[in-house]
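Structure, all two chains, one model.
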Amino acid sequence: MAERALAPKAIVVYLPTGRCVEHRLQPTDAAAPKNGELMHLILFLIFAGLCLAGAINLLLQSHPINSALSLIVVMSSLAVLYLLLGAEFLAIAQIIVYAGAIMVLFVFVVMLLNAGREDRTMGSRAAKLIGFPAVAVLMALLATVIVRIQGLGAAQLGAGLAAAQTAVETAAGAQDTSNLAQLSQVLFHELLLPFEVTSVLILIAILGAVVLARKTEGDEPAVERTAAK
Amino acid sequence: MTPVPDIDRIMPEVILTLTGVAVMLIDASLAARRSRRWLGWIAAMGTTLALWASLWQISLPEGTGFFDTVETSTFTVFFHVLICGIVLVALLLSLDTLPANSHHQGEYYALVVFGAVGMCLLTGAVELLVVFIALEISSISTYVLAGYRKQTGRGPESAIKYFLLGSFATAFLLYGIALIFGATGTTQVYQIAILAPANENHALIVAALAMMLVGIFFKVSAAPFHVWTPDVYEGAPSPVVALLSTGPKVAAFALLLRVVYEMLPSLRTLWAPLLWVAAVLSMTVGNLAALRQQNVKRMLAYSSIAHAGYLLAAFAGIGDLGIAAASFYAAAYAAMNVGVFAVITLVSGYDEKLPLIDDYRGLIYRAPLLGSLLIFFLISLIGIPFTGGFFGKFYSFTAAMSPMNGSAVALVIIGLLNSGIAAAYYLRLAVVAAQPAAPSAAGAAPAKPEIGIAVGAALLLAVAATLVLGIKPGATLHAAQSGAHTLQAPAPGVQSSPLSPIIQATPQAAQ
């Protein structure tokens, strides 16, 4: 039950303009069916295990493409864990951005570069020797900080799913209190201008990339001639 | 709710964005070998329209739009007009000097116009997120423009240097913004101004101020952060340098004014000495290094560092006086600097066949109009009366004297000494241009530069602005002063906005 106790009590997203979106997980005594709770625990154990296994496999594999594929497992299982904790926006963003877009880019680059199996060198062995103790120290440090500041509280797994279910059941209870609604309130309402102006920023970045990557003036006729053939 | 539609608050930016998109789309749909020069005229027309829209914004009641993220006031209108004017001159200059057969003129004009969107937005933003995005827009467009001349090795070199150092500086600014948010729980400038003095996390705010100043000093090329300037100016195409050395700098100075005078006026005892040091260093380093340059563009790069120093001296002024002087100097600097780079573009051409000071020998005989214009702009850069440069320096140093203490007097004395040093290298170029050409060089006498309609209009605008600022500075000064007034007074209705949610949202309060 240690994992359960370590899970955070609430997910707080601090946003500019001073508002914070806080999704407080429901306390343990909330009316939730016993079966559901067990189900959530099983789900959590499965995906936490998958996540850990993927992460360890990522480190142990010597071929980059295998490592990249393990990373997809890690990302997707993390998304499920987020969902179990009631952070549905984070979960979907995790799938779309990390497991989707970024991983495609990773795999693409690995295949494009045709990277082969990596060699075990003196340096990599040394890194392994130093790396594991370093990771242990880092974990211990993080755990200490979290325990000191937040303490160990009880969190209900599957709070988000349960809340969604109750919302569906009551139908009328669909108020704007889910973190998705609050997030979109901030993003598309209070910070509408920065959000929209970012599109100009991206546009100019694309335009700049096109300009910088073009052929120099002297090359152009030659290129066009070969294209016409 | 404000009675003014939010879209009116960003009308110039909207017009500029639409112009940029239009130029980009038309460029893509034209056949490969068609001339794209007229796209520059479209861009210039769009910029003129945006300038007119900025002037029209004066009729709007002062206030903010888009949930307190962007402001219109006399201050923002002043800088909008200034930036639109600079961009217009730079566009007109590019129209006649870009190589006619260039395949990528369309992208060039689009990038300039999009860069103007960023600069304009930067002066009007009262939300640090918008500030950051606007700064990135203007920076990225200038990074790309700096590397436009890819045939020479210097172009890509300057673009890469500018990009790497610029990104580094922006990261500092972003870190500062993050720290401000950590300390106050908001990124809205007015609310920071209210929350910062009462904040117990004083160290965080001090660190944030320092980080933001590093980022801004880089953008205005003030002294400890100036090393990129000469290399970038030398490698970038001259019409781009005309824009680069004025537009983003003016916008960054507007941001600096907003940060120190509107956002953190309570920390004056902290930022005033920092700006004092930066001003003294910029003036001295810029002028001393400029003395030793042989390349005209490098010399002017160091001169622009020195001018950033004179401008920073105005920040020693208290309240309205300092803001007005800094705004006026920004206008005067922009007018004369864009002018001198226009002349240099015409003399040495896009390919820069004549980069050295000695190449300007006999210019006044070869091209009397250009030669005399060059001397006129140099005189203004020295700061001789009846030019904009004189009143710029005059107001800046007068403002710097206003605290009436030892350090203020020292600053003004250092500034005046520096103006003397500066006269040496400006006069050297002017004298060389007025000397008859050596007979040995006559064999390879360069062709007389032609002045087209567009470039003529650009030069006329720059000369007129420099002269008006020098002979009749009253109107501009008045505008700068009323702008200064609007910068200091938070817009009405800010105090009434509920502060409780913000205080709840701060990490300390959440505990």
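The interface with chain B takes residues 12, 14, 16-20, 189-194, 197-198, 200-201, 203-205, 207-208, 210-212, 214, 216-218, 220, 224 of chain A (CB under 8 Å).
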